Q: What sequence folds into this?
């Protein structure tokens, strides 16, 4: 769809709000829900990937150096990765405007 | 007018035969009194090979409507029927069908909701689905039930509408009586009812997502789209009924008038009590009383303009309905009628009665009593929201 979600009028919706483009949830920025963000001390990281396994959003991937990092476009800030990270790489910090 | 067959038949069986004439692809239903004969007969028609459809025997009404969602979304013409507690159990999914714009047709054999347990007719089940966003058509007799079913498929599947439609008929008072009914020929129904073509059906070759999550940024727009389509559906419903009148010689309209033009006192009914009430009105007119009647045929979308037009000459409008909105302003029908007139300069005095609950009969004498009492109450200036008729004090 050409228009963004906040420009759509009721007339722009398909019948029954049907979505024709597969995978459209990818464009939904769930990162705006976040009140805490994960921060990383990669010097401690052993690249075990447990954080990625536990992430309910599935938004953690490996960066260029192979470290695991959340995509903040999707990360809701739940803190499960920080809780599960036993080498204590990840720390949650308050989002400040 | 073409050839027709008139037969004496139980209304439930006639309804099922009308569904067969509409050639549905899928019937998914769970039996419940007083709807049972409808779905039993449909199951029989499918089992005997007389109706080429999938009959899905489900484990509950919730599953029945869920199966209907799926089949309708795949582009299959879909029918189900229920009543009372079954409709309540189905409720969650009933709400889903309309905003998904799936044109399922459902017959509801109106029956009181528990408790106390009652298998008999009133409109508490009908009112429990008032705001589900379905088109809701009311039947007064067997012939109307058959005709309403055929029209319901055409209205629901019209690409200007695409909404599910309920056909209400009073449990036992209609479902279990034998009436002379005129059936159209199969070829006539085929001409009247075009094949169903859902614009965006479920299809692996062209995947779509239906009934999706809507965040606050889009939910209001989705609701307003639904509201607009059901409001505008009224024109399509009237057009369908006019076409039906031309094709089959029986004309329907949202508000049916019975000596209402010019009458100073009007009685309003919905459902099968309208026939009994009309006898009372006829007899009172024969005695020289200035009484008329209006009957509601379309509950949703509610025909506000037609109601105001039909009652424009009345000084007193007496409503008799078969359900209570506890602690509220009388029955739900009265609420609607009062809101239709509240902002009008000229309006009748509206007097509400609730009666005929849980299958209690309101006789011809009863309706005369209601009309006379209604006139008295209107003259007394009483501000009682409503009266309950026939209760033992």
A:
């Amino acid at each position: 769809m050409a228009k963004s979600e906040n420009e759509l009028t009721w007339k722009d919706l398909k019948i029954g709000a049907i979505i024709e483009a597969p995978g459209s949830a990818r464009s939904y920025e769930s990162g705006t829900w976040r009140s805490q963000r994960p921060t990383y001390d990669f010097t401690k990281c052993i690249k075990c990937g447990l954080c990625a396994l536990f992430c309910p959003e599935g938004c953690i991937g490996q960066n260029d150096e192979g470290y695991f990092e959340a995509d903040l476009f999707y990360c809701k800030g739940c803190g499960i990765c920080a809780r599960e990270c036993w080498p204590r790489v990840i720390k949650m910090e308050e989002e400040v405007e | 007018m073409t050839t027709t067959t008139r037969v004496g038949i139980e209304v439930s069986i006639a309804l099922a035969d009308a569904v067969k004439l509409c050639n549905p692809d899928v019937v998914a239903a769970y039996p419940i009194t007083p709807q049972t004969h409808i779905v039993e007969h449909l199951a029989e028609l499918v089992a005997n090979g007389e109706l080429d459809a999938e009959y899905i025997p489900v484990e509950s009404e919730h599953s029945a409507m869920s199966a209907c969602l799926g089949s309708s979304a795949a582009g299959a013409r879909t029918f189900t029927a229920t009543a009372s507690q079954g409709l309540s159990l189905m409720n969650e999914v009933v709400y889903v069908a309309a905003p998904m714009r799936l044109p399922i047709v459902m017959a509801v054999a109106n029956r009181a909701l528990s408790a106390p347990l009652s298998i008999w007719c009133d409109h508490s089940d009908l009112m429990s689905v008032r705001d589900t966003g379905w088109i809701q058509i009311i039947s007064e007799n067997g012939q109307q039930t058959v005709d309403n079913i055929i029209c319901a498929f055409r209205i629901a599947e019209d690409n200007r509408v695409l909404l599910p439609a309920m056909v209400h008929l009073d449990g036992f008072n209609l479902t279990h009586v034998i009436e002379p009914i005129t059936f159209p020929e199969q070829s006539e129904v085929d001409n009247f009812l075009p094949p169903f073509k859902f614009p965006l059906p479920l299809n692996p070759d062209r995947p779509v997502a239906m009934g999706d999550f809507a965040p606050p940024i889009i939910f209001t727009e989705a609701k307003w789209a639904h509201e607009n389509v059901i409001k505008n559906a009224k024109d399509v419903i009237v057009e369908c009924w006019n076409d039906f009148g031309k094709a089959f010689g029986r004309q329907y309209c949202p508000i049916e008038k019975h000596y209402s033009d010019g009458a100073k006192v009007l009685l309003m009914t919905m459902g099968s009590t309208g026939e009994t009430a009309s006898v009372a009105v006829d007899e009172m007119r024969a005695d020289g009383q200035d009484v008329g009647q209006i009957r509601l045929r379309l509950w949703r979308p509610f025909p506000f303009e037609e109601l105001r037009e039909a009652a424009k000459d009345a000084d007193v409008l007496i409503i008799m309905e078969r359900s209570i909105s506890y602690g509220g302003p009388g029955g739900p029908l009265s609420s609607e009628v009062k809101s239709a007139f509240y902002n009008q300069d000229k309006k009748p005095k509206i007097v509400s009665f609730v009666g005929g609950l849980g299958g209690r009969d309101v006789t011809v004498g009863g309706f005369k009593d209601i009309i006379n009492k209604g006139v008295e109450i209107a003259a007394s200036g009483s501000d009682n929201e409503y009266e309950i008729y026939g209760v033992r004090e």
User: Anything to note?
Assistant: DSSP finds twelve helices and 15 strands in chain B. Chain B touches chain A at residues 99-102, 162, 199-200, 207-215, 217-218, 221-222, 224-225, 228 (CB under 8 Å).
